[in-house]
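Students often ask why we bother predicting the structure of a whole assembly rather than each chain alone. The short answer is interfaces. A chain on its own may look different once its partners are present, and contacts between molecules only exist in the joint model. In this exercise we take two input lines together and write out one structure for the complete complex. Read the inputs first and try to guess which parts will touch.
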Amino acid sequence: SQQGEEDPQALSIQEGENATMNCSYKTSINNLQWYRQNSGRGLVHLILIRSNEREKHSGRLRVTLDTSKKSSSLLITASRAADTASYFCATVNAGGTSYGKLTFGQGTILTVHP
Amino acid sequence: GAGVSQSPSNKVTEKGKDVELRCDPISGHTALYWYRQRLGQGLEFLIYFQGNSAPDKSGLPSDRFSAERTGESVSTLTIQRTQQEDSAVYLCASSVQVYNEQFFGPGTRLTVL
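Now the answer. The structure tokens for the assembled complex follow.
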């Protein structure tokens, strides 16, 4: 079953604007990861945030995690046409039997217009 | 350094045939994962390897699916008697150890006619 659920399903913005995508999940997690996928292939790892962290930055990306609400957000600032892609959040459940496997949501399709 | 590689990149087969998909993880990565992505959907977990043992096979959809791994190196995913619903992109990922970032290969697009 899908753990992370992204919102919105699709987002269309102009170059230079910020894009915010949200992810909700249901169980206790060890960490949450965000990935980008272009053209149905090539998953690229963006950021990993652990359950004891609240915020992480990487370049133009900012990820927040609220474990009390079981939610995360990905903010892309000053978007570029090259940011056009599908974005997925994926959770790793807490507990020794999770083996670190990722449970993916359905993704948010981001389109950045030049 | 080299990333995760997979072969073949595309495979078209007839229903009922067996297929073998290959994954070469990043050198030194102990954990290896197989996922499947159907058209327009997120990824589904299939199987996990720690070294060459598979402690979690919970995601394998049926007994037609099997996988093995040689040491901390190459892994193969075998699908016997393929069905049309097996059509998907099969993605392999590796990580230094569990609970770390997973790095994905480009995937194998399997089409069962």
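Check your guess against this: Chain B has a mean pLDDT of 93.
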